[in-house]
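Input chain follows. Return structure tokens only.
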Amino acid sequence: MIKVKITLLLILVKSICLGQNFHEQFNKAFQSKDTTEQIRILEKWEVKDSINPELYTSYFNYYFSKSQSEILLIGTEKQNGQFLELKDSNGNVAGFIGSKIDYEQSNLKKCFEKINKGIEMFPNRLDMRFGKITALKRIEDWQSMTNEIISSIKQSKTNNNNWLWTGNEKKDEGKKFFLRAMHSYQLDLYYTENDDLLINMRTIGKEVIKHYPDHIESLSNIAITHLLFEEYDKALEYQLLAEKLDSSDTIVLNNIAQSYLRKGEKEKALEYLKKTLKFSEESRKNKIEEQIKKLEDSQN
């Protein structure tokens, strides 16, 4: 029995060492952008050690990188991103020149197949999930991004935020790190300035508070989506829940003031602007005082 245990341990150690060696080789080839060497290492690695999580993150990086190509854009209308102005002989703007990243579909498909398999085999590897979410964000597949975020939130309750990262290292302060990322992803959707994606933002926020009802940032984000759709009572419903959790949060208090102001309830708006002023930093007080004065003057 002892011999069996020792043999199994030796096999495990050998497997880990093999994985580390292949991972180091791949990273070196990846940094030098040698795609021929990268795929040679990956295929050899898969034969020798197909149950190593780093194999799947490496495959993901290989195919996602391989899918990308930069294309030149020239036009008369300025698009998103960085563009240079083209001027005619009179100094007038004649057009714009810039570039964007295009994604080749067959390599993109392989990239997601590999990371999906990795997530299935190693559901607590948060770097895999976040890597996939980031890739979906870059290709602007917002619904798939939302779906993966929702799946990650559900897994966070299953594993009690005992997440692993690269090298199977335990992620310190897993819950705090995870919820900070959930807030950031909601803001990513908000900053697209695409009103349709406010629903995705709300969906993520609601899934978060379903499991973490004291997450103030998600309560505030859900409220913002209702505020922008002029659903002021629904916005206040979530904002007032957030206030109960932290009555000195100036973002929450100011947003409550804005909801009441848009509803036309100036007295309540004033009440919350004054609360915001009380807890605000000195650098922000002048601006809030101006808002209070303007509102008070409008009532006279």
